[in-house]
Structures are given as structure tokens and as C-alpha cells.
Design brief:
Ser/Thr_kinase_AS, alpha+beta, about 300 residues, 11 strands, Transferase(Phosphotransferase), domain 1, five-stranded antiparallel sheet, kinase, Prot_kinase_dom, Protein_kinase_ATP_BS, Phosphorylase Kinase, domain 1, EC 2.7.11.1
């Protein structure tokens, strides 16, 4: 991966620890790669970069069609350059319009996301930052999971599952157990994030700012009240989302269960009106709005 045979074409993106560049071979410009250049001067960053390389190397050695493949890594002093296959179609986010996309198209992308996550979890890896910006598309619309900067192994070398801690990822996609700052299991956080991605694909909107009791929309969801974006979705789709966006980790569907769920295989049906609940055992919507505002003021 010598820099003498590659030249930087342009910047593809920028993250917390560095930038991603498009590079091409100087003797054969058709040979293109993405280069993630990172500096690890800050304390703790070096460990994150080393962890990313270990995880990505492990996954790339096996390989999967829905994961961006790592081609190599070069580290010189305080700089690491990870070379990756170049995915020319851009981010999934670019395909999501203001009002979302069709159910048929969303299922097409979501099946590929689930296949990729299934592969990750089978190989004892949790991504922890699933979002449209980290889902890349080829020119043929094949989806690839990218950016393993926050990923980690969730099993020890002896195969025993280990608990994780700390908040990692992006707030609107984070699962409720991560916000509690307690130990949590790895795979369920990816399932939750995938559910948020599906909501975003279908509606063009994020359902809440964060999955905490300080978010009114999240409180309404957990209490069974359905406003936008839910009111515009099929009942079958909402039932499917409930399996992924279940605040109770023990009751949340696994990626294996999501992969085998009939919703992913069924044909798209004409949308029917959704009966929305206007209250629950804790009071009506107005009452919950008041309580949520009070909680935010007290926080």
C-alpha cells in the first residue's frame, strides 16, 4: 500500500479522528480505493484504531457481500491509513427523500442490512454505529456496512459472551439501555439501530432525538401512542418495528429472528389507515406531553 504508487483524488468524508480519501493507482487509474487516514495523538484513540483494524481484518479475511472489505493498513508514527474497497454509489442517506422511500425499496435495502448484521453477529462482532451514513451503496445498489471505528468483539476468546458498557454511536440511533450507562449486551444494540434506520427510510424522519424518557416522541412510542411517522405506516410494518424497537432487551428480536420474519418476504400491500390510540393507562397525549416537558426541565 505504498503512497508512491497511489495518489489522492478527493475527500470522501470526515470523521472524529480523520478523513476518508479516494485514492487511485498512478499507473492504473481504474484501480481505486478508499483510504481512511487517522491520527492517534489523543489518549484512547490509538486503542480504538487498533480495535477497528483487528475487527475489520477478521471480517475481511472471511468476507461478506454486505460489508466493506479492508485491503490493508499502514501505520507510521502517529498516523494510520486503512485501505478499503471503494464503494462508488454513495451513502444510503442520499437515497432517502424528504418523505422517505417506497416500502418495496426500503425492504430491498433492509434485507441487505440484516444479512450484513447477521454475518457480523455470527462472527462475534457488534457494530454499534449503524446509521444511513455508514451504509454505502455500489453503483448496482448493493448495500455495504462501513465504518467499524466503534465496533468490537462481544465474545471472549473462549466464546463466552461479555457485557459492554458506555455509550457508543449516534444518539438518535442509540438503544435505551446504552443511555442508562449500565452494562449491556452487544447484538441487541445493532438490532435497535437497524429499526431506526428502517423508520428513517420509510418516513424520511427520525422518530426521536434519543431513546430516553426526556424525549416526548419516545415516551409516546413506549406508551402505544402512534403519531407521525407511525400514522403513515402499514400496521404490519409497525408490528415488525415493535420487535426491533422493544425497550426490553430480553423481548427484543434477535437478528436471526428478524432475518426469518415473514415481513421481509411479503409483497407490498396498499396502505390502510392505522387506528391511533389517543390515551392509555397513564393519561392522554396532552398529559404525557406535560410530564415529558416537566422531566426535561428537571433534568
Amino acid at each position: 500500500m505504498s503512497s508512491t504508487v497511489n495518489r489522492i483524488v478527493k475527500v470522501l468524508g470526515e470523521g472524529s479522528f480523520g478523513k476518508v480519501f479516494l485514492v487511485e493507482n498512478t499507473t492504473d487509474p481504474s484501480r481505486k480505493m478508499a483510504m481512511k487516514k487517522m491520527l492517534f495523538k489523543e489518549e484512547g484513540v490509538k486503542e480504538l484504531i487498533e480495535s477497528e483494524c483487528r475487527v475489520h481484518e477478521h471480517l475481511s479475511r472471511i468476507g461478506h457481500e454486505n460489508l466493506v472489505k479492508m485491503l490493508g493498513v499502514v501505520t507510521i508514527k502517529t498516523t494510520s491509513c486503512i485501505y478499503l474497497e471503494y464503494i462508488a454509489g454513495g451513502e444510503l442517506r442520499g437515497k432517502i427523500k424528504k418523505n422517505g422511500m417506497s416500502l418495496q425499496k426500503a425492504k430491498f435495502y433492509f434485507r441487505q442490512l440484516v444479512d450484513g448484521l447477521h454475518f457480523l453477529h455470527q462472527n462475534h462482532v457488534v457494530h454499534r454505529d449503524i446509521k444511513p451514513q455508514n451504509l454505502l451503496l455500489t453503483e448496482l445498489d448493493d448495500l455495504k456496512i462501513a465504518d467499524f471505528g466503534l465496533s468490537t468483539f462481544y465474545r471472549n476468546e473462549d466464546g463466552e459472551e461479555k457485557m459492554l458498557d458506555g455509550f457508543w454511536g449516534t444518539r438518535p440511533y442509540g438503544s435505551p439501555e446504552m443511555f442508562k450507562m449500565e452494562a449491556y449486551r452487544g447484538p441487541p444494540v445493532d438490532v435497535w439501530s437497524a429499526g431506526i434506520v428502517l423508520v428513517y427510510m420509510l418516513s424520511g424522519k427520525l422518530p426521536w432525538e434519543a431513546a430516553t424518557d426526556l424525549s416526548l416522541e419516545y415516551v409516546l412510542w413506549t406508551n402505544g401512542v402512534r403519531r407521525e411517522p407511525w400514522s403513515k405506516m402499514h400496521e404490519e410494518t409497525i408490528d415488525f418495528l415493535k420487535k426491533m424497537l422493544n425497550p426490553c432487551v430480553e423481548d427484543r428480536a434477535t437478528i436471526e429472528q428478524i432475518k426469518e420474519d415473514p415481513w421481509l418476504a411479503t409483497d407490498v400491500r396498499p396502505i390502510r389507515s392505522v387506528k391511533r390510540k389517543v390515551g392509555n393507562k397513564n393519561g392522554d397525549v396532552q398529559g404525557m406531553e406535560t410530564r415529558a416537558k416537566r422531566q426535561r426541565l428537571e433534568a
